[in-house]
Amino acid sequence: MTSNDPRSEPNRADLGKDPARVSGMFDQVAAGYDRTNTAMTFGNDVLWRAATTRAVAPKPGERILDLGAGTASSSASLARSGARVVAADFSPGMLAEGERRHGSMRNLSFVQADATALPFGDDEFDAVTMSYALRNVNDPKKALRELFRVTKPGGRLVINEFSTPPAPLFRGAYRFYNAQVLPRVARVAGTNGEAYDYLNESIAAWPDQKRLAEWIREAGWIDVAYRNLTFGIVALHRARKPA
């Protein structure tokens, strides 16, 4: 028996990154998203999240924006410090899953938001962060400018994003894994494998660490620096808004 409901069909975004298609794709994978991420990264996603939280260095009473929060695992990690965290994402399905899991945290709120037109005023947040989501925005440079706008003078930026392993041998093995193995892992984990075909394409097309650092500087941030995690599979970028 087949369904005529289009929501039951696998939704696959492409490098055009149409917001509706990307949002719909993430809506469909929300329930199994964290499980699949842990499987495909061999548990490194937990270590990367911890590194991001340490880089943000949340303090009690601070207001922090976690943009592209997905199921809010990163947001909950930040909120445990006592900071007031806004988990923002443009996928209502991901936000609903995040609220189901972490909605009981009093200092954690959920907002549906477009990264290129944030629904916040100027200079609202002590820190802003984005993990594995800037790559999915159709205008990432505009998103960096929006993050700059909503951050208080002297505030902090932390971006964790898939990147380019600098060692050629490892880079080749990593690209083979992304292209040939990763979608199969997603299907075994019960997730839309086509979404992870898109993940591979978006990682391959994404600029390397130095180029992203240049984009961050162009948006107005200062003290821009990055460090590689897990041989450069991901890179943790940090910056500050001028006081």
UniProtKB/TrEMBL annotation:
UniProt keyword list: Menaquinone biosynthesis, Methyltransferase, S-adenosyl-L-methionine, Transferase
Catalysed reactions, as listed in the record: a 2-demethylmenaquinol + S-adenosyl-L-methionine = a menaquinol + S-adenosyl-L-homocysteine + H(+)
GO molecular function, one term: methyltransferase activity
Gene Ontology BP terms: methylation
Top-rank taxon: Bacteria
Sequence segments annotated as region (Disordered): 1-20
Listed EC numbers: 2.1.1.163
InterPro entries named in the record: SAM-dependent_MTases_sf (IPR029063), UbiE/COQ5_MeTrFase (IPR004033)
CDD domains attached to this UniProt entry: AdoMet_MTases (cd02440)
Residues at which S-adenosyl-L-methionine binds: 71, 89, 114-115, 131
Coiled coil: none
Pathway: Quinol/quinone metabolism; menaquinone biosynthesis; menaquinol from 1,4-dihydroxy-2-naphthoate: step 2/2
Pfam families: Ubie_methyltran
Annotated function: Methyltransferase required for the conversion of demethylmenaquinol (DMKH2) to menaquinol (MKH2).
Family assignment from sequence similarity: Belongs to the class I-like SAM-binding methyltransferase superfamily. MenG/UbiE family.
Protein name in the entry: Demethylmenaquinone methyltransferase
